[in-house]
Amino acid sequence: MKSSSKTRGAHMKNATLFYKATGFALLLVLCILPIHGCGSTEPVTDTTLTAEQQSIRNELFQTADAKLEHLKSIQGDVLSPGNFSTGMSHYERAERLLMQERGIDQIRAELQQAVAAFEKAEETAVLGEVTFRSAMQARSDALEAKAPVFGADSWSRAESEFRTAAEFLEAGNVNRAREQARGAEQRYRSVELEAIKANYLNNARETLREAESEQAQRNVPKTLAQARVEVENVEQMLSEDRYDTEEAGRLAEQAAYRATYALYLHREIARLRRDNSTFEDVFLEVEQPLNKVGDAVDVDVRFDSGFDAAAETIVSAINSRISDKETRLVAARSQIENIRMENEELSDELRRKQNEIDVLRMEIDQTGDLAALLEVQRKRDEAIQNVRNLIPPSDGDVLLDGNNILIRLHGLTFPVGQSTIEPAYFGLLRRLQDAIRLFPDSNIAIEGHTDSRGSRELNMRLSDERASAVTEYIRANIGGEFDISAAGFGPERPVASNETEVGRAQNRRIDVVITPEWAR
After folding, report:
1. Which helix (H) or strand (E) holds 356?
2. Alpha carbons 149 and 29: distance in angstroms, whole number
């Protein structure tokens, strides 16, 4: 957020006066004002300078602006508030004189006094950095914990005490400044801990207060008591080590859950009482969610032996499904290993073929023999035909696009709105890998395309994700010898009309563009 330096200066002086009456404005001076930044070379006032005034300002304010920027970088406004405020008063007066088109000598005189005050503030800040190092670190830690948000009153008192220490330092009384800073440091550490606790426990505390206002103690005393104990445990843990945030965060989340659960139980019990529900009503109501789970896993849940037995039936059914999936997973891994071995054998064969082609090319280069050139052409045509043999028309079209081979996989489809490759298409993708291996040292581009339905942004993202999914699958199984890239074009390259369902189905596709080494 930008602000003119005149407005910032006015905020500082007004805040200082208000602080003397309330003890709160220092928060504005030391927290809000640094965000604005006083080192700008723009005029303080909101009035736009004329070209002549801006030229004068650029010349006269250069030194003062540099000093001011440096002071902000070393927190001079915090470590030497009195000198900083004096300097800002002269600085702002110079701005007003410039706007009023007063004499340059007057402006220069005010700026000289501003620079002198800024230099004093810089000297004090350098001394304060050493004298107040521990207190400033405590202040920084409290700010990081968002103390002004979670402990505004305590933060204001700590800021007030530190300002007093800074004023002692400005007056040359280092011992009093150091003693006062120790008190401020303690306050900063205290408000830091207060803020850390509030940050982690606010949700749990608010929920407990809400439960108390609803007199939940009458219905759920045990759950509420457990939630309070958990909150106390987190407070104790943070008091012992405020920086063990991982464990404290976990326990605080548990405390918030417990408090929320207590409030839920209270309201449910109150509802049952209002409805004059019987124990039978309660048991029948509890059965409903278990029946939903049973329906989801296709199990007929019975409650004649109690809820534990019903739960065991459901768990047994789920475990059986998990076991079945694990068995299928083992089988799939074995199949993948077999495919990998087949791929290695095919790669060896391809390398042998490539060596033969390389030998023929060398013969052409050496003799210019037309017959050898035709033999290379024949082998290329044979390789293209091999692609068509691997990708039947039911799975895709194999086309020649110039010297490129285009494989249009209309047999590969995805669930609506998803980019997940279903197991049914693993065989097709394995044949695609075999086709790619026919062209060693080739560039492979996997292109995703969609129809025109839905937003363009969604279609672009979906086509990119589908192309990436196919690419990652191929990379995982083909090895690193091929240069494979992925790109999504959404609805931008249709091959049929988007006005019919048939046309849209043709537009939703994966294209594989192979640029063989001999085509580059």
Report:
1. helix 307-367
2. 15
